[in-house]
Amino acid sequence: MIAVIGDFMIDHYLWGRSDRISPEAPVPVVEVIKEEDRLGGAGNVVNNLLALGSDVLVSTVIGKNSERLLELLKEKNIDTSGIFIDESRETIIKSRVIASNHQVIRYDKETKTPISSEYEEKILKYLDENIEKIDLILLSDYEKGVLTKSLTQKIIKLANRNNKKLIIDPKKDFSKYINAWMIKPNKKELSTAAGMDINTEEDLIKAGWKVKKELNLDFLLVTLSEEGMALFGEEYIKIPTIAKEVYDVTGAGDTVLASLGYYLSKSEDLVEAMNFANAAAAVVVSKIGSATVTLEEIEETERRIDNSVDYKIVDFEKIAHIANDLRAQNKKIVFTNGCFDILHLGHVKYLQKAKALGDKLIVGVNSNDSVSRLKGPERPVNDEYDRAYLLASLEVVDFVVVFDEDTPYELIKRIKPDVLVKGKDYEGKVVVGSDIAKEVKLIDFVDGKSTTNIIKKMRMEN
Q1: Cis before 380 (ω within 30)
Q2: Phi and psi for 98 in degrees, rounded to 5?
Q3: Percent over 70 (pLDDT), the chain
Q4: 259-314 pLDDT, tens per residue?
Q5: Residues of CATH 3.40.50.620 domain(s) within the chain?
Q6: What pLDDT does 302 receive?
Q7: Which of 102, 168, 326, 409 would bridge 183 by S-S if both were Cys, CB 3.0 to 4.6 A apart?
Q8: CATH 3.40.1190.20 domain position(s) in the chain
């Protein structure tokens, strides 16, 4: 079990679209389509741990109007007996207005004053009573008053006394973290703590060793955004980032903290824990809002590092989950299908046009048996895995699914695409799945480019 102590809050989202400027002021008018509450701050660390399959114990102090926060925790089957309510405080709410995947404004309601010694003792007592079943402790410090210097030092002493690993996501006052097992600052936070600018790797190394020594840490792990991560332990180790698409860094630090905690609760290998957290960060920054990652997504990201595209080839069950996740991120899903027996220029241009109609392109590929039924016993020329792999190798293709039926209707039911794409030869015909997709688009083929023509030419030459 992993314990999470820190500043819990609600991330409140107003999702919408904007196509005009207000006549009252030079600001966009956002038409709100969806309103959503998520656990934020230390709560987002909990979200990520739960997504990874961890058992979690939580403790914090929240304020008045706490019903919604408690409800969010209970919805996730979290024991709230370690949550203490101080009616003199505000329950923290961070509200974000997002239009067309872009954050327009954020406004906060919060209390930042330190909690009283009475509430410090409540948290410490709860942690002490449960210490035997705790494998690792995570402190998520958003500097909103829960992790006071006094409480933080007491928790560090409790962890050290019981030989429990403790990882801290720190803020400005690093003196709170003396004698901790590990802290995880970003480069800016490290720069402030070290009292020096960090412009080069030499600066980074100097600052890292300085802070590690001054705080008597076992380990210092620095997140470096697009530059990766650096670990100061018995030696200095740096790994590069693997993130390609960065849509939103909200909660990325929470994901790194949770994934480090998850991995190190099961293993002693710090370098592998860094690689695991690095892959988790690459996933989460490609999503909008305070997001979580799953083991499956991390494994897919790690496979990308090996330059394999097999992660793009998925089965019926998995594509349904992927499509649901994409919809949750407000991604526009495009679907098309075909035999793609001999991949040629016409196919590639067709797929490029299809991808331009949305955010993610999913391609259904007829299985060997399906192609034989449709095209005759001499087809396919290429095996279904070969065809799927070649399609997955195209940058415009996001996922490939092999289906065995004569039509992709069952597959379309699982994906529920926003846009269903077919060739212009379907003009005036009923397109399978048109009753499911939001819209159907017909795309011109490249004249003279077809698998049938290629096969005929090969036979004539032979």
Answers
A1: yes
A2: -120, 120
A3: 90
A4: 999 999 988 888 888 888 888 877 776 565 546 677 777 766 666 655 567 778 99
A5: 312-461
A6: 64
A7: 168
A8: 2-305
Q: What would the pLDDT profile of 135-167 be if each residue is shown by its tens digit?
A: 999 999 999 999 999 999 999 999 999 999 999
Q: What is the CATH number of domain 312-461?
A: 3.40.50.620
The two structure tokens encoding residue 106: 């954020």
**Residues involved in catalysis:** 254
Rounded to whole angstroms, how far apart are CA atoms 185 and 395?
35
Annotated binding site: 186-189
**2-305 sits in which CATH class?**
alpha beta
Question: 112 in helix, strand or coil?
Answer: coil
Residues belonging to the binding site for ATP are 186-189
Hey, what are 384's tokens? 């279904």
Find out whether 145 and 115 touch, Cβ atoms under 8 Å. Answer: yes
Q: Is 128 left (phi over 0), alpha (psi -120 to 50) or beta?
A: alpha
For 151-262, strand residue ranges (E) read 165-169, 182-183, 219-223, 229-232, 236-239
The model scores a pTM over 0.70: no
Check residue 76 and give left, alpha or beta (phi > 0: left; psi -120 to 50: alpha). alpha
Q: Rounded to an integer, what distance in angstroms lies between the CA atom of residue 391 and that of residue 150?
A: 58
Measuring CA to CA, how many Å separate 409 from each of 74, 271, 370, 432, 441?
A: 39, 46, 13, 6, 16
How far is residue 287's CA from residue 291's CA, in Å, rounded to a whole number? Answer: 6
Distance CA 65, CA 406 (A): 56
